Amino acid sequence: MKQLPWTLCALAVALVAWLAIAIVSVENQRNALASKACVDPALKNQVDATCLASVQSREHWWQHLTYAMTHFRS
Predict the structure, then answer these.
(1) Cα–Cα distance between 53 and 70 in angstroms, integer?
(2) In 3-state terms, what secondary structure has residue 39?
(3) How many CB atoms lie within 10 A of CB 68?
(4) Nearest in space to 34 (alpha carbons), one of 54, 59, 58, 50
(5) CB 52 within 8 A of CB 29
(6) 47 DSSP assignment
(7) 26, 35 contact by CB (below 8 A)
(8) In angstroms, how far apart are the furthest CA atoms of the chain?
(9) What tens digit of pLDDT does each residue of 20-41 get?
């Protein structure tokens, strides 16, 4: 019975880490779109998908996480 709480704890930590990674990725892309960092030069008002997949719109991942966790929209 002592293994069950530790297993649940490990699963909860893994879930929180997975959600944090997803939030960082989404916030990175949102910030890139907001700052128009990935505008396609060939087509006006279009987004370059390869740029959006590889852009780093802030210096560190924790800056994305901090911004996303402190700025909510209702």
Answers:
(1) 24
(2) strand
(3) 17
(4) 58
(5) yes
(6) B
(7) no
(8) 62
(9) 999 999 999 999 999 989 888 8
